[in-house]
Amino acid sequence: MTNTTFTPRVFSGMQPSGGLTLGNYLGALKRYVEMQDQGGFETIYCMVDLHAITTWQDPADLRAKTRELAAGYIAAGIDYEKSILINQSAVPEHAQLGWVFNCVARMGWMQRMTQFKDKAGKNAQNASLGLFAYPALMAADILIYHATHVPVGEDQKQHLELTRDIAAKFNHDYGVDFFPITEPVIEGVATRVMSLRDGSKKMSKSDPSDASRINMTDDADTIAKKIRKAKTDPDALPSEAKGLENRPEARNLVNIYAALGDMTVEQVLAEYGGAQFGTFKPALADLAVSKLAPISGEMARLMDDIPEIDRILARGAEQARTITAPILKKTYEIVGMVGA
Ligand code: ATP
Ligand code: MG
Known about the structure:
Elements: E1 9-14, H1 22-38, E2 42-47, H2 49-52, H3 59-76, E3 83-87, H4 93-102, H5 107-111, H6 114-120, H7 129-143, E4 149-151, H8 157-174, E5 183-185, H9 220-229, H10 248-260, H11 265-272, H12 277-303, H13 306-335
Parallel strand pairs: 1-2, 2-3, 4-5
Helix pairs in contact: 3-12, 4-7, 4-13, 7-8, 9-12, 10-11, 10-12
Adenosine-5'-triphosphate (ATP) binds next to helix 1.
């Protein structure tokens, strides 16, 4: 099976389950913009609100977060003239294909998903069925566009593998070559930004501790304070990357610096090797503020005109449906639905 017959197309999305974090920006959003600007791909970027309700969301809050996420995308450089920008629930074919994939994915596959185990925690019996089924809907988000490439953080690797398994099983079961076997794009030095409080946990927008993350909307003082308080060890920074092994918190801060500065880890250590955190942390805070402040300023400006955001999303949904409606129709025909 080859992907050569498919249009090179990028799809990715984020949940409006909280505000954007530095992890979302470095691991995903910054990469979205790069893939949009490098050319050679059609790019489609999404706010996945149907995923957000797999855990409880206050409705008014969810609406606000969805629009804020759209503003974050645009402020970071997603250009709705170059990319299709959409809210998931406004393009109903995502959920419709999601149902078909619920019937393709196997219980055993879903039970292996580590994100469900992490998010459901000790009380898995009380988690929503949606949280369990989430990766099948995610596969539909991607495959309803026949997307060939998906930029994501490292935590989504397993869900991307499941997406490939679902596409392959569908193609095999129905004897077709209909869905592409999508390539994950997990690149750069910040594919897994860690919590500032615990170097073994990833930074997440839904983490109850605000001190664990840098939010895109944090002001300069808050960013400086969070970085100053970030957990570290007492040693100076090494001059080579090897010296960061077994120092997860130090490695995390160096990776963040490298990603923000478009540098390699080696370049950062060439500059800061031998420095104490008392020197490195303020430098990191300055760099973070210089990169994030223009984006958060622009986000705030965009949030002053909600009707304009809604217009952009309505236009995106219209564009998206020219791709998704025919793919859903064909899927329904393949599986034997009458009247599709
Ligand atoms: P939640 O806690 O609600 O799951 P999240 O911060 O994990 O929120 P998602 O909406 O699940 O954000 O993910 C959006 C994108 O950001 C995905 O591509 C994901 O891989 C990426 N991402 C999330 N957290 C990180 C992180 N700490 N480092 C790098 N990339 C990340
Ligand atoms: Mg997540």
